[in-house]
Amino acid sequence: MANNSVSNNENSNLIERFYNYDWSSTSFVPIDSWEPHIKSIVNLCFKSGFPTFISIGQDMLTIYNEAAIPAMKSKHPQAPESTQKVLNERRLKTLNKLSCQTADAESLESACQITMKALQNNQDIPYALIYLIENNKDPKTGFNSPIARLVATTFDEVCKDELIHKKLKRHIPDYFPETHEMIELSKISDQNYIDVKCATSTYSFLRCDCWPINLVMKEEKLIHVLLKDNSQAILLPIKLTFCNERNLSAVLICGINPLRKLDDKYMEFYKSVLNYVSRILIRGMSIEEEKRRAKILADLNHQKDMFFQSISHELKTPLTLIFSPLDELMNINSQDMQMKSYLQIIQRNTRRLFKLINTLLQFSNIESGQLEAHFYETDVTKLTRELAMNFENITSKLGLKYIINIPNSDEFYQTENVKVYLDHDMYETIVFNLCSNAIKHTWNGSICIRLYLDNKNEQKMMVLEVSDTGVGIPKTILPNIFQRFYRVESQSSRSHEGAGIGLAIIKEFVKCHGGDITVTSEVNKGTAFKCWFPIGCKHLQINQIYYNNKENYRMSNDQKYSKRQLYLEENLQWIQNYSSSIQDNMSNKNLTSDYNMDINKFDDIISPFSTDSKESSLTIISKKYQILVVDDNTDMRNYLSDLLREFNIICACDGQDAIQTLHKLDKLPDLILSGFEKGANNYLKKPFSSQELILRIYDTIKLSNLRHKILYQQYKQESIKQFLLTISEMINSGDNLIEALSNITKKISKILPCDRIFIISNGLSTSNTSNSTLVALYENLENKTLIAESFQNEEITNLYSQSIQSQTFLNNSGIEILLNTYCTNTCKNVSMLSMEIKMNNSYWGWIKLQRSPNSIWLNSEIELLQQISNQISLAIFYKTLMEKNLKKEIQVKAETIANKTKTQILANTSHELRTPLGAIIGLISLFDQSTLTNDQKDIINIIQYTSDSVLSIVNKILNAAKLEMHQITSIKTTFDLLDLFEKTIEQFIKDLENKQIELILNCDIENLPRYNRGDSERIKVTEAGEIIVYVSIKSQKDIDNNKSNTYNHIVKKDYLLIELHDTSNGHQDSIGLGLSICKNLVKINGGEFKVESQLGKGNKFWLTWNIDLLPINTRFNSQISYILPYFIMLKQILVIHPIESARNAILKYLKMVKNVDAFDSLNKGIQEIKNYLNLYNQSIYDIVFIRLYEKNKDEVMKGLLELREMDKYSNNLLIIFIVSSGDKEIILAKTLISKIKGRTATIHSPVTWQKMTKLLSNLYDNFGKNKNINI
Length: 1271
Prior knowledge:
The chain is of the alpha+beta class. Among the domains are: 10-71, no CATH class; 102-288, GAF domain (Beta-Lactamase); 399-546, Heat Shock Protein 90 (2-Layer Sandwich); 626-715, Response regulator (Rossmann fold, 3-Layer(aba) Sandwich); 736-780 and 812-857, Beta-Lactamase, CATH 3.30.450.40; 971-1040 and 1053-1122, Histidine kinase-like ATPase, C-terminal domain (Heat Shock Protein 90); 1124-1270, 3-Layer(aba) Sandwich (Rossmann fold), CATH 3.40.50. Strands 29, 30, 31, 32, 33, 34 and 35 form a seven-stranded mixed beta sheet that branches.
């Protein structure tokens, strides 16, 4: 199989090399143009299994098959490499060709056509088609439906007969599916596509009747199609987004080379082609979008220009109808000054409107290219001087130095034969606009008009320069000032009126003359404009030049409304503003509000339309509301002043003037009427109705007053809140309560004006004052009571009666009001308001306020005093409580420090005692190997016992110290429960022997788990070790401990119940620390410790100890419970023990044994054995446990001999002696063992599970052997 695979690969490589070879480099044409018989011969060659060679063409090229490879030897291996190289180069050329065509796309249609043209005659893509997906609006339903439109193919060619109309002829092959020019995707039902697998490709193909455009767009993935002649094609989806607005969807259909296998590299090539096609489409779509937007902007611009022209012409008609009747009215009413002033305002503003309309019309003509120019040879020096001198009088009144630096005509023209051609209308606009701007932005200094000749760009030019020393223009905005509608923000100028197109028009006018305009400026130093006009007329159009030296052309035959008059009237308003500012600078007196001034006199001072606005602003009459009017238009200021005669009007010409005026007023105005763009409380659009303006003013002032009242109330409440907080701070911050209360009375007098304020204490909460003691007093030395303005409009609570009798107000509320009562301290009648100060439901004292007799007390005053009283009560209570808590805290800290010191001393002492004790105990162990007399041994034992006792005491002291210092923590480990008890009991063996105490460990073996998790070290310490120890386990709730458990199981939380019983008359350790240590350790573990005791009956101690029961599948021994050896479970056992609790403990260990009997004496056991022998003639027991004491040795000896006699034939009875670890009982056991013979064993008391299992295990190993075992 491997050889066949290699063979197939070789044959495939040969075929690929053949079809991808560049036949154009030989005498052959491309393979597609070969004759059919040659193709057949080549096909037979490749399919033949015999070595076959073909030599064709003039170059005698050799074509061979796979069987001929061995004969080719070294000439063959270069074929596969050459094939891939040729493919890569050819495909790279295709991509490069597409990339070069990107810039040629001018629309979406042209982009598609360019793409198809670039893919024509391509061997890797034999043909290509591109469909664009568009939305087509259905005229019947009105809804958009998607359609696919065939835009371009590689089969397209321009018809030669109809080249002018560029009609395309498409030759769609017959083996294609149905190829429609337009496909309505919404009407195409899902076709029954057939999946086909091709042997030459790893991809699946679809057979279909028409191109599956809808399927490609629906699934958004490429689709392979098998055509009618079994050739292949691929459909590639294109989805593009342009500027996040316009989406483009398209489908690119590409043919697949029938002689090439569709492998991964071929697919990568198609994807690269798709990327380049997408770029071309994006380019075409962006160019198309730019053209569309440019057309829209051009249309909008044209519509705007037409609108300006039409609206300007339309406005001129009503203006014309206003001018003529207005002139007649002024002539008729020339004697009526008030009416004349109204008419003058109308006239000035009508002319201003006329000027603005002319400006907009000029701008519209410039934008639309309809500006007509008439250029005349002009004496420019004379014309410029005439125009500039119009502003001489205005600048003089404004206090500016006006310089006209224009040479005479003879001086200007004497050097050269200079001819200047100007459009007088345009030039007049240029001069007036530049001069007016200079005056507008210059507050002091000078303005200079110059005319001179200069060279620019190697050309002789006339220069008109207008410079000033005004506010200047920032460098950052200089490039923008010639843009239309551009205005410099926040620039200080005499007026802010204007449309922002003046400089833009000037620039266009200068350009009409073939010149240029430049500007230089520096902030706060000035600005200079230079207009450059070429000399001569070569640069002008011939049809715009007029050779009339008489200069008859003028703007209009009617000089009445010439530009001069329009510009000068505007500048005259600035003179009024300047005059008023001069008067203001000369006046150093502050503005005063004379509320007694006669209104009629005020009307005489301020004429309805006085130009002296500052004089009117300095006069204030006695009217309810005051308004500041700020406007840079003098007519508007005068009109508003006359319209709002019912108010006190103060005028200001601009913001700076308004600020200066506000600084000089004693009281801020109720309203500012100005042209704010933002931040105002109310807005009124121009033109406005006078009645609406007055109503708006009243409403705004009322709303403002309401806001002020609300803010005042909020401020008042916040002030009271801060004052109440201050009371608490004053009482709590100081040590002297009386001093704090005295300061509080002073502060109360500032918000509650009174003649006298004092506080009386009943002495219930402080030791510094006696009962009914005056602790604080404030007296108003001026003896004058002022009622706050805030209380004037409030409801009066207490109205004194006609008889002026004393009365009590709201007895239950702790408030007392006496309108006319005698004060013994001041020896006069007063009106007194009293408020109780309560603490802990008791009366601490009173706070009292006094005023002149029969004075009333307002609601707000009573409520405020009640709040003050409550705050004083809370503050005193808190201060008293804090003092008590502080004393307790100091006492607790002192006790804690003393306790820590005591604990540290105990710990240090314990450490010091352990050093000599360690030496003593270590030296005593050396005597174990020495030969000593009995007396010496007794002395050594006494020393050792005493040392151990002292060491135990020292350890207890050290443990107690560690507990006090919190140096003992609970550490959980895994341990064997009964093994732990075994080791703990060993520590008390000697004490038990010395005191001859029987220790019994009673454990519930059946329920106790073997391995547990807890703090085993603390259990050792808590073992008290007396008489009987009961150990059992109690269940708690199951807790999911996945987060902390190592084994990720549910850990069962249980606790041990340990009970200790003794029969002593009382219990107390030597130093009284044992039980304390036990209780603290149990508490650390989270358990409980309790003690019960009855005189003469003994003590009972019990505790609980928390443990975690380990799950079954842990890493410890699989035996998790306590189990006896199996062979023991089949035995019969007899237990002889005089103590019932000991018998019960052993029976629990042997609970799993088949038969166990227990008696308190050996005689009872022997009687049971005899009864069994009589019935069954055989022994009943295999093992006998006997407790051996010194006092029962004779009884035991006699009974054992009798047992041996009854067992003499079987000799299987095992006797186990239970003895203490002391020498006496061990020797006694050995003596009995030597006498009774047979199988014996020894186990030490107390009997524990570990000892029992060890003994029984050894018995199993030595069972049948006559051997004594000692455990």
